């Protein structure tokens, strides 16, 4: 979108959000009437829960604040892009300060028990608190450190795999991606793939779900895994019960549950030996650079573990450190314990502490992600997604011969499991309630740790 028009877009968006607010608050009578009924089905309770959450939000946050947030984030988005390109945090600093200030006001209006960040956290992961997330991370981080230290001292991934620097033709990679879509049996009539700067999945309707990937001409795995990742999001939305269409249940529950679906396909399936055996002949057919490369070389390249600066390029072992860092910063910004001008330096220090590498520029550090410019403070959701994906992996392997199914490309059985347990419910239950129903526990990082240990150390 034209960068000079961000002010006008901000104004239009601000007006839209006020219309949404008055529309939702206009349903207050219906909602309180429905809340008095005691013979509601799970479907009806779900709708009431979803609308009720929106209603509570819009009842607490005044229209002036909503408007300011919309304007500030729409403008900041454009400035962030330019600041990132020039690697100049100073350019973006004032905008981030305004956004943090508005988010702090939002937290105050929403109200919270304990830490102010809880008010914001609840918007992304219903009913979760900083105590919950702190507990999960303090169990996860030392285990990841332990596994990472051993993997690095092992030396297997340290050398730069030759495939990493090999260049590919965009058209060849398009053919690979088309075949991967066929392998995953992505439905042709309700789904499509396009190209964008940052890969994403989007949901227009239950029967209209779209994904993008990108072609950078080097490092082909990024294009392939972005696609598989986004297909994981797409399958979730495609398999929601069609009866929920046009209700607030026809959507994902939370960032964590949504990300569990994409990470499950990208990593637990996509980076497994069995899956890589299936894509090996496809890559061999279309990409010259893979021809003559052994299966083991390919497997190592696709699973390389290497401390690096950029979150979206991080391997599955170091990825969560990138999230813990952002979560710590967000928590302190919202609490008012940290000023925006301190962010770049603290970012660099924490990157060194957790990942062992230090950014040399703002673009490699605090400017790399766009979420904050959009007012989205909720990075922890990505790690919760990895943790839930680990829980799915553990559960599914107890119920079926998962490796054999992946090896045969029998993905329908796996899709059916995901549909029955997760997808078809849409937004009927909260993320915690859904986990209790499937696993009898919530956000347990042990299964993710077991999976990583098995994969990288044994
Ligand atoms: Mg994602």
Give your account of this protein's structure.
With 458 residues, this protein is mainly α. The chain contains 19 helices and 3 strands. The protein folds into 2 domains: 1-111, no CATH class; 136-317 and 381-456, Neurolysin, domain 3 (Orthogonal Bundle), CATH 1.10.1370. Helix 8 crosses helix 11 (273-286) and helix 11 packs parallel to helix 16 (402-408). The longest helix is centred in the N-terminal third of the chain and has 25 residues, at 130-154. It is globular, with a radius of gyration of 22 Å. Bound molecules: magnesium ion.
Mean pLDDT: 94
CATH class categorisation of the largest domain: Mainly Alpha
Order of helices and strands: HHHHHHHHEEEHHHHHHHHHHH
Regions with little confidence, pLDDT below 50 for 5+ residues? none
- Give the beta-strand count: 3
Strand content: under 5%
Rg measurement, Å: 22 Å
Q: Which architecture of the largest domain per CATH?
A: Orthogonal Bundle
Biggest sheet strand order reads: 1-3-2
Write out the distinct hetero groups bound to the structure: magnesium ion
Spatial separation of the terminal alpha carbons: 49 Å
Number of helices: 19
Structural class: mainly alpha
Tell me about the largest β-sheet. Answer: 3 strands, mixed
State the domain count: 2
The helix content, as a percent range, equals: 55-70%
Shape: globular
- CATH topology of the largest domain, anyone? Neurolysin, domain 3
